[in-house]
Amino acid sequence: MTDKITNWTSADDAMVENAIRRGASRRELLKMLLAGGAAVAAGGVVLGRATQAVAGTPVSGGNFKAAGWSSSTADTLDPAKASLSTDYVRCCSLYNRLTFLDKDGKTQMELAESFDSKDAKTWTVKLRKGVTFHDGKDLTADDVVFSLKRHLDKAVGSKVAKIAAQMTGFKAVDKSTVEITLADPNADLPTILALHHFMIVADGTTDFSKGNGTGAFVLQTFEPGVRSVVTKNKNYWKSGKPYLDSFEFIAITDDSARVNALISGDINFAASINPRSMKLLESQQGFELSKTTSGNYTDLNIRLDMDPGSKADFVAGMKYLVNREQIVKSALRGLGEIGNDQPVSPANIFHNPDLKPKAFDPDKAKFHFQKAGVLGQSIPVVASDAATSSIDMAVIIQAAGADIGMKLDVQRVPSDGYWDNYWLKAPVHFGNINPRPTPDILFSLLYASNAPWNESQYKSEKFDKMLVEARGLLDQAKRKEIYGQMQTMVSEEAGTIIPAYISNVDALSSKVKGLEANPLGGMMGYAMAEYLWLEA
Predict the structure, then answer these.
(1) pLDDT under 70: residue ranges of the chain
(2) In this structure, are residues 197 and 97 in contact, taking their beta carbons and an 8 Å threshold?
(3) FRET label pair with 247: which of 34, 99, 180, 313, CA 20 to 30 Å apart?
């Protein structure tokens, strides 16, 4: 016989949920259900449903304290100069962007109400009305024009000056309309402006110490290299947000110390912990781990313009020698997804899922090494702690090579000076690339013939032409097709081996709710403060 609830309505559900929020005991709740005509078994169903609903409903109030892993006396509240995760977190709490990337990697509107173009070269941006800065000033088109033009001023020192250089014209059509003109068509402009550096500041701002933005929080304290404290913006234009009363952000550089601070209750959130520190949480209750795989990777770079990379068979042999499964399991302690030698990760909407990674095949590797005439030679491979997990990766590849008579001489060099002295320079070396929101940015930085960070010196006129073509197309399906082909070209032709996309792991108290993954990185793409709440 099925238990039924008679005369039970959504209003009754709401009554039970409110009682749970007030802290009613299970006995009191069952009495309420029985009085409403619910049988005992059915009452249990209602209680489970109501408890789940309450757990997923944001709660206002509370003081949230989080610890990142890096800080510097050069920490800044100027979005254009932001360079560390600490800068991004603070800027995301104080300012807004025209657009933002959601958890699925799709571009959504924020301060912009709409973003339109007929040719991907001239863009019309309509701004939301009723948005104010912390000092009470209304948001206008002049603020947007000023904020974007700053990146072109060399004196500002913008970290995205090269990306911003494509914007050649800015016009405030009226108080809520901006026209942006590009040097060449680029359909990615709305996505590019979701980068943290393109936060909107008030027209004429030169002093950023007050953090005057349109964001969810208002600055109370900022001590560069130490901490920041922000409090709820009661006039925030997003209805109901933020949920937190305040947010304090500090840095604890040591992983174990960061996790211990979480366990002791000194903080609610420990960002980016390593696998060894995760063990500290295994025997503890009341804590959770949040995993984000957003496109960060460590790659093995073989320069195609130097020996031995100038021999195509050496590169082919190395791609078969890399045991991707073992790298994810051992070097990354399971915190990663297998890569297929191209930079567009599964978190990106343009990722090509049909491109399969090279299988680990020592016999094929040996065949290509013999063909290249390098079997038995000693090949230097430069690795460093500066490139995440590269030393562990190098040892795994070295051992596989030894099994087939391929001598790889792993040269471990100091972190200090690695990026200046070895990256992009050594014939065979490791790199580490942070997530970027579009294939165009990744390919332009890393694989175009004139790319500033062309790690393997890959050159292809066909690839360069496809890059320009895809950039100017408004047809997303056609762009995805072209980017898929370009991913295949990089995987098969370039000298970069990307064995895995590395997962970032944040640790948090179970009372912290609302955290989701984001393609821009951990801590919800560094924007978590606006969206989280603390369970009552």
Answers:
(1) 1-27, 29, 32-55
(2) no
(3) 99
